Structures are given as C-alpha cells and as structure tokens.
Amino acid sequence: MLIKEAKIYAIITTGGKQYKVKENQDIVVNRIDGKKGDKIKIKEVNMVSDDGNVKVGNPLINKAEVEATIKDHIKGDKVISFKMKSKKRYKRKVGHRQLLTVLHLEKIKLK
Fold first, then answer.
1. Count of alpha carbons within 13 Å of 106, Cβ hemisphere only?
2. Are 12 and 44 in contact (CB under 8 A)?
3. Predicted pLDDT of residue 2
4. CA 37 – CA 79 distance, rounded (Å)
5. How far apart are CA 46 and CA 6, in angstroms?
6. How far apart are CA 22 and CA 101, in angstroms?
7. What is the domain range of residue 21?
8. Cystine design at 34: which of 38, 60, 63, 88 (Cβ 3.0–4.6 Å)?
9. How far apart are CA 59 and CA 14, in angstroms?
C-alpha cells in the first residue's frame, strides 16, 4: 500500500518577486530585515493549492500565511556593468553584489 503525501504549495510575493514554495524548502530572496534564526510570517500569499483544491486570491488571500525562519544572509554573484565610447576615451566599469536572504519555509497556513 502506498502512502500518499499531501502536495500543498503556495505562491508568495516578497521583494517584488513571486515564488512557488512548498513546506520544508529553502529559498533565496532579496534581503529581509532580521537576524539569523528569527521566525517571520509572509502574509502576501497569492495562491494556495492543497492536494488539488486551489484557492486564488484577488490579488492576495486574506487568511493565508507562510511561516519561515531566516537561515542566513548572503551576497549574490557579482554583476559587472561596463560602458565605453570608442574614440572618446570614456570607460566606466561598475560591479554590484545583491544582498540576499536564505529562508527555510516551515508551514503554509490557511485559517
């Protein structure tokens, strides 16, 4: 006999981007204020699917939230922007590293 796992997932918005998340998953998002080990609640939930029962918000679901723990703060890969105008002796090189947060998603709640 096969035991079927509950396939619950949600689509959340944080930092202006949307992520499809499941319970016990790690995701990397734009920097969130807080210390390593802090528990946070993400209330911007756009959609929840609980084993085929889909609930879509307009644009958010009021009674849904995702509980997460801040696992680490990291920096992303370096992105280099280079501008040059030939025959004008103009060059400009700038590097940027995005500040990121690693989240461990613990529970998706529907009240």
1. 11
2. yes
3. 61
4. 29
5. 20
6. 17
7. 8-109
8. 38
9. 14
User: What is the signed CA dihedral for 37, 41, 44, 45, rounded to 10 degrees?
Assistant: 100
Q: Is the whole model's pTM more than 0.70, yes or no?
A: yes
Domain-embedded: residue 3: no
Domain total of the chain? 1
Going residue by residue through the chain (111 aa), what tens digit of pLDDT does each one get?
565 566 889 999 999 999 999 999 999 999 999 999 999 999 999 999 988 788 898 989 998 999 999 999 999 999 999 999 999 999 999 999 999 999 999 999 987
105 in a structural domain = yes
DSSP code of 63? T
| Residue written as token pair 């969130």 | 32
38 is a domain residue: yes
Alpha-carbon torsion angle 19, 25, 26, 29, nearest 10: 20
b/e map 27-47, b = 16+ CB within 10 Å: bebeebeeeeeeebebebbbb
Residue 83 CB neighbour total at 10 angstroms? 9
